[in-house]
Amino acid sequence: MERISAGPHHTAYKIGDLTVTSLRDGYVDMPVRRLRQPGDKPFDGDLPSQVPLFEGALRLSVNAFAIDDGEDITLIDTGSSNAWHPTMGFLPQALSEARIVVDRIRTVAFTHTHLDHIHGLVLPDGRDGFPQLSRLLVPRPELDMFRSVARLSRFHDRAEPSDPGQHLSASIEAVAATGHEIGHTGFRVTSRSETLLVWGDLVHVPSLQFERPEVAWEFDADQDQARATRLRILGLVADNGWCVAGAHLDSPGVGWVSRTGTSFRFEPL
């Protein structure tokens, strides 16, 4: 992958014949108590020195990813719009900065249905974020969860289920990544022998969870399964030399994973 443009809210890369753009929706500060050890126990002990804190809180980037095949653009996740913290909701600015015309976004696919991934369908002023949207893909086990979100009611009947192994296009395939949520899904993007895995919320605190992948997150629907999935996918991408893109990896959230004994290391691209 090669970086081709960057700004405060976006970074674009060339992967084979595709352009993949990381779009910064913003960030959210979360208390350290969100970290969990096995048995749903709060994180015990001092954080390692490499874990930065902002006024005592963990700062999580919030990223979405646009995949442009030259004809249409598929958007993976949409950020939070004005549904959560005021430090988020900058996806429209990121799209403008990256010179992505929203009318070219015809497909939106969610990694899962947590609010910082889905609410960007609707702009703060109530207009549709993507007026030419023709396909909205939601992980099948989470369709009812999506259809319970009142703010997104106009999209309830338009949502289609996505399943692991499903091809969104010739270059994009859904990959099972359950644990953080019951339908949590990654998307494998392949072009000209290059592969990028957009993995959603596999890692929340990159300064800690690559070195200690057993540390889970309070909002994981199934912490044990989330741990197992994290270990499986970290091994998969490290052993195959795939690039990765994460919703909560430090913006722009794109890089490589390598093994270091029984743990892993992330290197930003």
Give an overview of the whole structure.
This is Metallo-beta-lactamase domain-containing protein. It holds the Pfam family Lactamase_B. One of its GO terms (molecular function) is hydrolase activity. It comes from Mesorhizobium plurifarium. Residues 61-248 form the Metallo-beta-lactamase domain. The chain is mainly beta and 269 residues long. It has one domain: Metallo-beta-lactamase, Chain A. The chain contains five helices and 17 strands. It has an eight-stranded mixed beta sheet with strand order 1-2-3-6-7-8-9-10, with helices on one face. The longest helix has 18 residues, at 223-240. The relative contact order is 0.17. The mean pLDDT is 96.
Average pLDDT rating: 96
Residue share in helix: 10-25%
Strand order of the largest sheet: 1-2-3-6-7-8-9-10
Number of domains: 1
Span of the ends, CA to CA: 8 Å
Count of strand segments: 17
What is the overall number of helices?
5
Class of secondary structure makeup: mainly beta
Largest sheet: 8 strands, mixed
Could you say what the CATH architecture is?
4-Layer Sandwich
Shape: globular
Estimated share of beta-strand residues:
35-45%
Q: Considering the protein shown, what is the CATH homologous superfamily?
A: Ribonuclease Z/Hydroxyacylglutathione hydrolase-like
Low-confidence stretches: none
* Order of helical and strand elements: EEEEEEEHEHEHEEEEHEHEEE
Instruction: Supply the CATH class.
Output: Alpha Beta
> What's the gyration radius in Å?
17 Å
Quote the CATH topology: Metallo-beta-lactamase, Chain A
